Structures are given as C-alpha cells and as structure tokens.
Amino acid sequence: MTWLPLADGVFARRHADLDLTLGLVVGAERCLVVDTGPDAGFGAEFAAAVRAVTALPCAAVITHAHWDHYLGTSAFDLEHLWAHPAAVAEIAHGTAAQIDGWVAHDPDREDRLRRSPVVVPDAAYPARVDLGGRVVEIAHLGPAHTPGDLVVRVGDVLFAGDLVEQGAPPQVGPDADRASWVEVLGRLGDPRVVVPGHGDPVDLAFVRAQRQGLARGDHG
Ligand SMILES: [Zn+2]
Questions:
Q1: Considering the domain 3-216 in this protein, what is its CATH number?
Q2: pLDDT per residue over 185-206, tens digit each?
Q3: Rounded to the nearest whole angstrom, what is the distance from the C-alpha of residue 211 to the centroid of ligand 1?
C-alpha cells in the first residue's frame, strides 16, 4: 500500500482490500482526501498514511454513497466532509441496509462494518476549493453509478469514483442509471489520468472503452 504520485501534490493510494483506490491532494494550506475506505480500522490506517504525508488541515470528498467508500470517515479529523445531497441522504438513512445486504454474502466483514460509526457529510459541497496554490473542482455530472456521484478534478487528474473501474467490470446495481451513466462518461473533459474507485489509474481511451461497454449493455 504505497502512494502513487500522479502530479505535483496529487496522489492515489491503492489497497488490496476490495482493490480500492483512494486519493489525496495537498496544497500549501490544506489537503483533501478522496473517499475514506470501507471501515473504521481501514480508515485509521489511511488517515495515518495521510498524516505521514502532510500535517495540514484536511477535508474529504465522498465520491458516492457506497459503504466501501465512506465507512472509514470516523478515523479522520476533518474540517469538512463533502458529498452530493443524494449521497448525504443515503449515508444518513441507507447505511444499515447496505451493511445488512453486504454481510449476507461476506459475513467475515460484519464486525468491522457494524463497529464503524456513520459520519454524515455536510449538507452542501463547494464546486471549487482552493487548497493553497492548488485548486480542486468538485462536480456532479448526472446520475450514473449512483444518483449522487461526484468527480474531483485537480489539473489534468480526475478522481472518478466508481464511474470507472479498472480490474473488474463497473458495478451496475439497482441504484445505477445506465443511460445517464453513458452520457456522464462523455462529460469528463480531457484528463490525462482518470483515477477509478477500484483498480489502477487509467487514461481516457480506457474510459471510452468502458463507456462503449456500458452503452452495449455489458456488465450486468
Ligand atoms: Zn460504488
């Protein structure tokens, strides 16, 4: 589990657990974490790794309201916790059902999930955050993998959450909107690097191929 430098002050962190990929952006005055991981213990390790890089005050963005992206939040001391309003509602009201659904097929994870406090994000998120010499844009491009996906852009790096997955097919669950997702993947702009929610960072050619697959009806 090491940091993958993507640009000046921009890092991805790959984890064997769930093949997760999380993010960190460091400016001159503050830092921003992208997703916090699947449980409090994991979050504690991730938070320590962040603190090994920077002691600056930190905020976090949750890319979407799937438990594996936000149940690590309680381990962080954050200035702000941002998510899309639809994701905020799901985190507040849907987490227990998500955990019940997951442990039905992965009972070994039950203790870790049930012991992870749910931290509900702020009611609104900013479209633009200046971390001190490094500006981050946070955007909702339409319903896709979930009703409330956010992407995080810093320079030519785009953190895409589960709009893109590498190493496994994108997960098209009951909360996904496939037709809109296909449209959303055409609105990512022209990033040099796209960081998926699971798997290694990819380029736009990879995203285009995944978009075509979704449009064809692949992946569930
Ligand atoms: Zn997801």
A1: 3.60.15.10
A2: 999 999 999 999 999 999 999 9
A3: 16
